[in-house]
């Protein structure tokens, strides 16, 4: 996990590498007949079918965690927006024509690890992976410091290296990173 977060951190620092790392696609397929029949019987109350529509898209295309659902009553359209790590899926169910149009974008490996690094649209399970990894890395650092303080021969050099490791990014930040000053 440490290597994954280090590599993805480098990728995030060079977002220009991700310029051509996206793939767009579209699927057009008939709406399942059972769902279309229910919808045609209840065109004026299509929102009551949202759970069934979501269940169908989850089963057929593994789409979960819908961001938004819109309904155009006069055109009998239901539109669902799904954010994904490194992409998105946008489903449009046209109950008049009986067609499901699914537009999607997926990212390549670099885009994917960048979004996983940030936890962007990756779900609760991945959020736990990030948190547990961070806690373990903190524990590794603390236990490393404890081991350092127990080693008399290398303690002084280790303390100086630690101070240098803390001071260097602080100095770089204060001297070379653009920042707004004088506003509080």
TrEMBL record:
Domain of life: Bacteria
Membrane-spanning residues: 125-149, 156-179
Record InterPro entries: PepSY_TM-like_2
Keyword Transmembrane: yes
Coiled-coil stretches: none
Keyword Transmembrane belongs to the record: yes
Keywords: Membrane, Transmembrane, Transmembrane helix
PANTHER family: INNER MEMBRANE PROTEIN WITH PEPSY TM HELIX (PTHR40115:SF1)
Name of the protein described by the UniProt record: PepSY-associated TM helix
Organism whose genome encodes this protein: Pseudoalteromonas nigrifaciens
Phylogenetic placement of the source organism: Bacteria, Pseudomonadati, Pseudomonadota, Gammaproteobacteria, Alteromonadales
């Amino acid at each position: 996990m440490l290597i994954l977060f280090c590599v993805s951190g480098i990728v995030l620092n060079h977002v220009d590498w991700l310029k051509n790392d996206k793939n767009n696609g579209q699927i057009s397929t008939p709406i399942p007949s059972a769902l279309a029949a229910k919808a045609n019987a209840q065109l004026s109350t299509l929102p009551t079918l949202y759970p069934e529509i979501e269940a169908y898209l989850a089963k057929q295309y593994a789409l979960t965690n819908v961001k938004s659902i819109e309904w155009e009553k006069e055109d009998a359209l239901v539109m669902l927006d799904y954010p994904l790590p490194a992409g998105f899926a946008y489903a449009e169910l046209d109950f008049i024509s009986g067609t499901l149009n699914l537009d999607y974008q997926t990212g390549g490996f670099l885009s994917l690890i960048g979004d996983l690094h940030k936890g962007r649209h990756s779900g609760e399970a991945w959020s736990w992976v990030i948190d547990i990894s961070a806690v373990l890395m903190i524990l590794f650092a603390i236990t490393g410091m404890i081991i350092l303080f127990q080693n008399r021969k290398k303690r002084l050099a280790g303390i100086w290296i630690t101070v240098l490791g803390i001071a260097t990014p602080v100095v770089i930040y204060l001297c070379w990173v653009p920042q707004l000053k004088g506003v509080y």
